[in-house]
Amino acid sequence: MKIEAIAHGTGIIVDAIDKGASFAIDLKVKAMARLLEDEKGIKAGDKTAKDIAKRVLKFFGYEYGLEIKTESEIPPDKGFGEKEAISVATALSVLGALAKKYGAINELRIDKYLRGQFLIIDEKIVDKKGIIDLCVNSGVQFDRASASLYGGFIIANNKKREILRRGEMESLHAVILIPKGLEGVNANKSSFKNELELAWNEALRGNLYTAMRLNSLLYGNKNAKKMLDAGALTVSRSREGGVIALSRGEDKIADIVNSVKREGKILVQRVINTEAKILVKPKKVVKIREFLELKGDQEFNWL
Asked: pLDDT at position 136, please?
């Protein structure tokens, strides 16, 4: 049986030294996992997906063969969190395949509006923080993997792998500029160490839009400035050159698009507060009281 999972791309709020803040956008990666019980090795076209799948199987002590396929809507190598989304979607699809065979994929219903998936493998609940830790390796940032998994915004200490603040974004339009050429930032982050620390502290206080503007303008990006001048609420600028302008109303979108339409391809999307998930119906819907009574002696992070 194949199990599919989706995770979302991300934009940058602040990219500081050892610290970061990100938010999710509605460009997704879908991963499909299928256990090959009579084989060994992992069949995958994407190196990131293969590495993550190997880590998940090793962590749970399984030596099955595995087939992994991924499909991505996220423009590659432009700083929109494709690697993090591939990592999260792959981890969830493999975990889902294991849970389907050796446990359950359930839904925790906290109240009328708040609910989410949780997995049981070998009679143990899979810790969500543990999923992120499995995803974070070379080239995958903790804050961006967290935003891809949880949706909304995340402010984190990447070195310590600690989420310091999490929440939902406003319902905003996202005008995404994919620049034509290589427009990555050449400046070393250490050149702006103090300024980036100020921007990150603004994000930690909840001033996300101010932090985003500071982070973007520190590198003197002309496209970010054009989009701000055209009426964007704020802009997110990645080190790889991609820019995301956020707007509350549709009336600003045309002006923002026109300001940079000659600079590259443009997508109009939304920010998103939806969690990454496995695309199956839950085996059981569990209410919070029942969940708290489940047996277990390990720490569990829901966040």
From this structure: 93
